[in-house]
UniProtKB/TrEMBL annotation:
Keywords per UniProt: Amino-acid transport, Cell membrane, Membrane, Transmembrane, Transmembrane helix, Transport
Leader sequence residues: none
Alphabetical list of PANTHER family matching this protein: AMINO ACID ABC TRANSPORTER PERMEASE PROTEIN, BRANCHED-CHAIN AMINO ACID TRANSPORT SYSTEM PERMEASE PROTEIN LIVH
One Pfam family recorded for the sequence: BPD_transp_2
Similarity annotation: Belongs to the binding-protein-dependent transport system permease family. LivHM subfamily.
Name of this protein: Branched-chain amino acid transport system permease protein
Keyword Transmembrane set for record: yes
Length: 299
């Protein structure tokens, strides 16, 4: 509890925690948006979400090792993960559409374990990061630092989010995805190839996660078995925000990022991830309780 006293006696530390939380929360929002997209369109809870993020980070890291500038790793990771996502749909995911939600949980959990082991074999078990050589700005007489790479990742995340919104609203495929999400049967009657829509949706989700992973490896660190944490974060954000609510996803991601920073500062970094899992349990219990009062159930 000594750290709480520090926050009270030196309020400037609150500014640092809020700033770090918002900057990191932007990365969480990107992965969570992909999960919300797949869940809303295909009714699949994608447990392999976090592994897509980590794999995107390893793609960017691998390119950096051969001399490719770090920022070029973002589109490269997105393209590589889109192809992987599209292939995974054709091999596995198409069998899960219109099936029980529990089956999709088991299948994607199995894919998650498989990708973890493959990344461990291919890239090794070491913690990796990409040094972009960017420095930090200091404000409030040097009391608060703003890492340039995290600010850049924040801006790029917003750019990617705007591109996704424009794609979903203006492009024919985006309109087809929205129509399929509203009523897949009606979309088929109107001539929309829903199988192609599902494959593209899953590929876009993987591409978004890949871009997020490339930003993560430049801002933080990655590890082959780190993906589950990003899956839990994405799931927590989507449960709070609801499906089809982009503004809610962004706000929830910022809130989770700030809450994590405070938990890490007050409880210690070793309990930061445990806080995320505990928060998810509390949110699910609260949602279940509130729905029970309305004679509904948690879907």
């Amino acid at each position: 509890m000594d750290n709480i006293d520090i926050l009270i006696q030196a309020p400037i530390f609150n500014v640092q925690l809020l700033l770090d939380g918002v900057l990191i929360g932007a990365l969480f929002a990107l992965a969570a948006y992909g999960m919300a997209l797949v869940w809303g369109v295909m009714n699949i809870i994608n447990i392999v979400q976090g592994e897509f993020v980590i794999l995107g980070g390893f793609v960017a890291w691998s390119l950096f090792q051969v001399g490719v500038p770090p920022l070029f790793g973002i589109p490269a990771a997105a393209i590589a993960l889109f192809i992987l996502g599209y292939l995974l749909y054709k091999l596995v995911i198409f069998r899960l559409v219109d099936r029980d939600l529990f089956i999709s949980l088991l299948a994607t959990f199995g894919m998650s374990i498989l990708l973890q082991q493959l990344m461990n074999e291919v890239f090794g078990a070491d913690v990796q990061t990409v040094d972009t050589q960017l420095q930090s700005w200091f404000i409030f007489e040097g009391m608060v630092s703003v890492p340039q790479i995290k600010l850049l990742a924040f801006v790029l995340t917003l750019v990617i989010a705007v591109c996704l919104v424009v794609f979903m609203r203006k492009s024919r495929m985006g309109q087809a995805i929205r129509a399929t999400a509203q009523n897949a049967r009606a979309a088929r009657i109107l001539g929309i190839d829903t199988d192609k829509v599902y494959a593209t949706t899953y590929g876009i989700n993987a591409a978004v996660c890949g871009a997020a992973g490339a930003l993560v490896v430049m801002s933080l660190t990655i590890h082959p078995f780190q993906g589950l944490a990003y899956t839990i974060r994405s799931f927590t954000i989507v449960v709070v925000a609801g499906l089809g609510n982009i503004a809610g996803v962004v706000a929830s991601a910022f809130g989770l990022g700030v809450a994590e920073q405070y938990a890490g500062f007050v409880l210690g970094a070793e309990y930061q991830l445990a806080f995320v899992y505990l928060l998810l349990v509390v949110i699910l219990m609260y949602r279940s309780f509130m729905l029970g009062r309305q004679r509904k159930y948690l879907k």
